[in-house]
Amino acid sequence: MKKINIVKILVLLVLTGFVACSGGEWVAKVEGEKISLDYLNTAYYAQHKQLFNLTKEDVDKYAADPETSKRLPTLNKSIFLDELIKQKLIYNKAVEEGYMKNKEVQVIMDIAKEGAVVQYYIKEKFKDEITPNEKEVEEIYAQQKDKAFRGVPIDQALKRIRSELAGRKLNMKLMEFVENLKEVGKIEKNKNYKDLLKANTEVPAVKKDEKKEEKKAAKKDDSEK
């Protein structure tokens, strides 16, 4: 499993949105708002499955392995809970300072929400169609074991190959799926959309002195040729 900084987990949690659940047993409170055990478990598995393309069983297996847990501390649920608490504290402070009214923040949240739904949807939709052929996996390992996988335990190497093959198949399925959606979907672009995009692109003004320097540099280059 690749190593990842805890900060990246925190950033992903911020982008995908944090909503503490109040139902059931709670494990922590942040400024009076409960984080339930159910929410903690759901967030824990969802984040690690999404980041590393793992199953719930894989997450549990890696969490039980001391070496992997050392490389990825958030596999420890206590540490993961601490990250949720940090994220909630920062989120509350941002809300207090009015950042939820910021237009860019609102757009980022919309994009992150749509992206999370899309990623989860396509993985679930095609999960039974992208399982790699074991013969193909073994052939790739045999070809690359002395190069790409030198010193890598065979179980880890095979898992990485399966993941890469599944990713390729998913990309192919996704391209085909999107093309089909385009055929039946109602898509319309403004006939002047290119001009509108150009009109809304800010190009920094070049000062006269900078233009002179550019011309001098161009002449110098020409004379040296």
What does this structure look like?
A two-stranded antiparallel sheet has the order 1-2. With 225 residues, it is mostly helical. It has 10 helices and 2 strands; from the N terminus they run αββααααααααα. The protein has 2 domains: 1-105, no CATH class; 128-186. It has helices spanning 6-16, 37-52, 56-63, 66-71, 77-96, 103-126, 134-144, 154-184, 193-199, 208-224; strands at 26-30, 33-36. α1 crosses α5 and α7 (134-144) packs across α8 (154-184). The chain is extended. The longest helix has 31 residues, at 154-184.
Please give a handful of descriptors for the protein shown.
225 residues; mainly alpha; 2 domains; two-stranded antiparallel ribbon; 10 helices; 67% helix; disordered N terminus
Helix content: 55-70%
Number of DSSP strand runs? 2
> What structural class do the secondary elements suggest?
mainly alpha
The number of domains is 2
